[in-house]
Design brief:
Length: about 350
């Protein structure tokens, strides 16, 4: 992985600068998602290429995911709806996916060329994330190097037509590879690697005067919690808080402290101003009582629901009831009450996933 990074750095340094396009060229809108990227691992040191873009555009300090699972979080970015509103309650290999009626990102750009290049099975077509894209390219099982997605995206980008692009990079997701002595060090290396992988794409998109949003589907628990190096069993900020950046021509550079969420991604890509959110509601991906004491039943149905504002959070934990941390507003609990009960899986996608050789829980 490190040898590859050196090779990548070399090719980036020697690659020709993209040719700037005229302002009246057909528009490009692009979403880049770095899987499993924690908000506190977004910095000039660790992720210099994305940080440099953020310095020229908007950096959202308080952006949240609705769930630490890849399929639901990406479905929220594509639809602007929470998982319990768009049907993607859990990962595709759990047997859940987007409702056929949910409008997805390409539906907002009729007549545009569109393409998605993803790097792991949970972001793949089973579960509905491929719906509406003119081109959808991803591995049929497991994961692949993010460089493949970036190279194919650069090759695909049309110059004479409006273009909508989604590129997904999976490097920071476990298991972490690298030279570091600890898991934490190797995780940071993977985050840096993801930043270097998307650098040529950022340069090309910027030269095209594209509207660019870069974010993550969820963060990661490192060594801070009872269950470490995972994301599906936690509702902490380590998992729910994600980096978010927007750049487009003429944008006023600023750091934005208003709360936003992954459901705001379609509006951000559309160039709109995001109204401030006073609160956010999210769920854990699943219950494991060793990780969340008292949760029951084990698995997807015992997941926690959390509603939070700046003063604190309310947690509804099946098997233990509702409790608060800090002093959240009483009205925040209405958000928990509005989340419907989880339905049964749609179909035997789990068996399908097994048949493809995908055996991870994420
Ligand atoms: Zn993910």
């Amino acid at each position: 992985m490190i040898l590859w990074l050196i090779a990548c750095q070399f090719s980036m340094d020697t690659a020709p600068e993209p040719t700037p396009r005229s302002p009246d060229a057909p528009p490009t809108v692009a979403l880049i998602t770095i899987d499993t990227w924690r908000a506190d691992h977004f910095s000039d040191d660790l992720t210099p290429n994305i940080w440099a873009l953020a310095a020229l555009g908007e950096r959202y300090e308080h952006a949240f995911s609705p769930m630490g699972l890849t399929t639901p979080a990406h479905a929220s970015m594509l639809t602007g709806l929470a998982p319990w509103e768009n049907g993607a309650w859990a990962n595709n290999h759990h047997g859940y996916g987007m409702d056929a009626k949910a409008l997805t990102l390409p539906d907002r750009y009729p007549g545009w060329e569109s393409a998605a290049f993803v790097s792991a099975y949970p972001a793949g077509p089973v579960g509905g994330l491929s719906r509406g894209w003119g081109v959808f390219d991803g591995p049929e099982s497991g994961e692949r190097d993010g460089s493949v997605a970036v190279e194919r995206a650069l090759k695909w980008l049309p110059s004479d037509r409006p273009a909508l692009l989604w590129v997904h990079v999976y490097e920071p997701h476990g298991p972490y590879e690298g030279n570091g002595q600890t898991e934490r060090e190797r995780y940071a290396e993977e985050v840096s690697l993801a930043d270097s992988i998307v650098a040529p794409l950022i340069r090309e998109l910027k030269a095209r005067n594209a509207t660019i949003v870069i974010t993550s589907d969820h963060g990661e628990v490192l060594d801070e919690e009872r269950c470490s190096y995972q994301h599906e069993r936690s509702i902490s900020d380590h998992v729910l808080k994600v980096p978010m950046v927007r750049w487009m021509p003429g944008i006023e550079p600023k750091v934005i402290s208003d709360w936003v969420g992954l459901t705001d991604v379609p509006a951000l890509l559309g160039g709109g101003r995001i109204p401030e959110r006073p609160n956010w509601v999210a769920q854990s991906g699943m219950c494991e009582s060793d990780c969340a004491p008292g949760c029951s039943p084990a698995g997807l149905r015992g997941r926690d629901t959390v509603a939070m504002d700046e003063a604190g959070r309310w947690v509804e934990r099946p098997g233990r009831g509702r409790f608060s941390v800090g002093t959240p507003g009483a009205g925040v609990t209405d958000l928990i009450d509005a989340v419907p009960e989880m339905p049964q899986p749609m179909d035997p996608a789990t068996e399908h996933a097994k048949s493809l050789g995908y055996i991870s829980t994420e």
